[in-house]
């Protein structure tokens, strides 16, 4: 049972009415977000509605709900909020009008006292019933919030936490496997080649063949140079140090140095996001660019990163052949990384292109 706080004080007598009328209009905003499919917008709307219930109805029980199913909440509350609001506005206008008419008859036209008392009493009762109806609307709204936004028992919450943890662990394991493949196929092979070259240098030195020795040393130096480049590339892919040193925008502007394709950057980052959000945004862009470079066949890639008051939006687009598999290993890893931060990840890649990878990461202002 949802308990609406005590609103009996005279200065709060109108709170339920104001809250219910506001809820009528905000319900329409929620329906607009639902129609757009704006998941983050729905969660933001749900938070605002919980604040409204706390502010105008003192429904403290909804203050810290986790917004589990904002779409269901928005849809159901819109039905009773709009209908209840229309009835409340119409009935309230009628009750206030009648009370004002009765007051005018009493003060101006001097009707008989008994008729005056009855008329004023009827108007007052109408106003009181409107207030009670507003409380009922608020009670229904709070109950809907508890049903759709709150936890459905301890076991369900535990299952949700287990799925989230499994997704995070899966993302970490995938990243470790990718690093292992990179080290095995790149750095290790370069190291073996360098060791062989140095072995040849030693054998030539033993035969004291100076000309051949110079050539072998040149090969060894070349292999060492390539090995250093590979090590730097691996370190960059694991975590670019510039991200910590100079921030997200600087790290993104360093991306063209690591791809052979033309990269167009459109960055609108007013302030540095939290570390976890910045890292996720960077790796989404970097991995999407890497995938496009390897598989799209496009000549250029466009990257847009925009910081909004409540989220960071990254969009990577290429005009290649399309057909990217959203369930592929790399994209699945990105989806898990974004989901671990309560964000939204989408891939749109019809056959023939273009391919667009979009991530929205919540970022409190």
Q: Tell me about the largest β-sheet.
A: 5 strands, mixed
Query: Would you report the number of β strands?
Result: 5
Q: If you compute it from the alpha carbons, what radius of gyration comes out, rounded to the nearest whole angstrom? A: 32 Å
How much strand content do the residues show?
Answer: 5-15%
Question: What strand order characterises the main sheet?
Answer: 1-2-3-5-4
Average of the residue pLDDT scores: 77
Name the helicity range.
55-70%
Number of helices: 10
Question: What spatial form do the alpha-carbon principal axes imply?
Answer: rod-shaped
H and E string = HHHHHHHHEHEEHEE
Return the structural class. alpha+beta
How far from one another are the termini? Answer: 34 Å
Low-confidence stretches: 1-11
Question: TL;DR?
Answer:
This protein has 365 residues and is an alpha+beta fold.
Describe this protein's structure:
The chain contains ten helices and five strands; from the N terminus they run H-H-H-H-H-H-H-H-E-H-E-E-H-E-E. The chain is rod-shaped, with a radius of gyration of 32 Å. Helix 1 packs antiparallel against helix 3. It is of the alpha+beta class.
């Amino acid at each position: 049972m949802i308990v609406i706080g005590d609103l009996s004080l005279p200065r709060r007598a109108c709170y339920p009415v104001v809250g219910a009328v506001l809820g009528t209009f905000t319900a329409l905003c929620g329906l607009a977000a639902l129609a757009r499919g704006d998941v983050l917008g729905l969660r933001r709307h749900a938070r605002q509605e919980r604040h409204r219930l706390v502010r105008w109805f003192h429904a403290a029980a909804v203050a810290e709900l986790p917004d589990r199913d904002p779409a269901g909440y928005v849809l159901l509350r819109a039905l009773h909020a709009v209908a209840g609001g229309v009835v409340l506005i119409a009935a309230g206008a009628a009750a206030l009008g009648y009370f004002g008419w009765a007051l005018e008859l009493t003060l101006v036209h001097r009707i008989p006292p008994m008729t005056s008392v009855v008329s004023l009493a009827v108007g007052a009762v109408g106003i009181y019933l409107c207030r009670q109806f507003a409380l009922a609307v608020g009670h229904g709204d709070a109950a809907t919030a508890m049903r759709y936004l709150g936890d459905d028992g301890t076991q369900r919450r535990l299952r949700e936490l287990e799925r989230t943890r499994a997704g995070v662990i899966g993302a970490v394991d995938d990243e470790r496997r990718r690093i292992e493949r990179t080290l095995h196929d790149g750095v290790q092979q370069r190291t073996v080649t360098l060791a062989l070259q140095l072995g040849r240098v030693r054998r030539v030195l033993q035969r004291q063949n100076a000309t051949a020795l110079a050539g072998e040393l040149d090969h060894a130096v070349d292999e060492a140079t390539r090995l250093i480049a590979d090590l730097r590339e691996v370190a960059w892919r694991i975590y670019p140090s510039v991200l910590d040193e100079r921030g997200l925008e600087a790290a993104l502007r360093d991306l063209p140095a690591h791809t052979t394709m033309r990269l167009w950057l459109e960055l609108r980052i007013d302030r540095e996001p939290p570390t976890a959000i910045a890292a996720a945004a960077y790796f989404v862009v970097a991995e999407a660019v890497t995938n496009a470079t390897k598989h799209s066949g496009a000549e250029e890639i466009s990257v847009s990163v925009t910081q909004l008051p409540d989220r960071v939006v990254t969009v990577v687009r290429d005009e290649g052949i399309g057909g990217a598999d959203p369930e592929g290993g790399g994209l699945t890893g990105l989806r898990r990384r974004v989901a671990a931060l309560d964000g939204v990840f989408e891939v749109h890649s019809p056959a023939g292109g273009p391919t667009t990878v979009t991530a929205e990461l919540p970022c409190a202002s």
